[in-house]
From TrEMBL:
Annotated compartments: Endomembrane system
UniProt organism field: Neotoma lepida (Desert woodrat)
Major localization class: membrane
Keyword Membrane in record: yes
Protein name listed in UniProt: CRAL/TRIO N-terminal domain-containing protein
Length: 143
């Protein structure tokens, strides 16, 4: 087990091995392969390429290196193309406060039977008219 897997239960490690193709013996090599692909895209500002961050993308793509890199690149491209969305991405931002107040998302205190966090979206609390208005504004159309 590597330091990146520290804190994971034996059951979770086995699940990662079986379902995600995660191998502690090649974990650092897998991460390095994705990191080596970063230089192929100098047009993207990769803000993080540390082991723990890249591991998230490898797990999300079941350790398919190219697919993990593609997802990582898309993530940073999206952030670059939407700078205004991420510049004040804090709980104190009025829009974020409203979303939290509306219950988006809510987390249950207990975990599911696999030990995963459960998020709950309260669709009844959404004000559809404000969502539509925000979408129209994003498209540049007057409401």
């Amino acid at each position: 087990m590597t330091h990146l897997q520290a804190g994971l239960s034996p059951e979770t490690l086995e699940k990662a091995r079986l379902e995600l193709n995660e191998n502690p013996d090649t974990l650092h090599q897998d991460i390095q392969e994705v990191r080596d692909m970063v230089i192929t895209r100098p047009d993207i500002g990769f803000l993080r390429t540390d082991d723990a961050f890249i591991l998230r993308f490898l797990r999300a793509r079941k350790f398919h290196h190219f697919e993990a890199f593609r997802l990582l690149a898309q993530y940073f491209e999206y952030r670059q193309q939407n700078l205004d969305m991420f510049k004040s991405f804090k709980a104190t931002d009025p829009g974020i406060k409203q979303a939290l107040k509306d219950g988006f998302p809510g987390g249950l205190a207990n975990l599911d039977h696999y030990g995963r966090k459960i998020l709950v979206l309260f669709a009844a609390n959404w004000d559809q008219s404000s969502t539509d208005q925000a979408l129209y504004q994003l498209e540049g159309t007057a409401v």
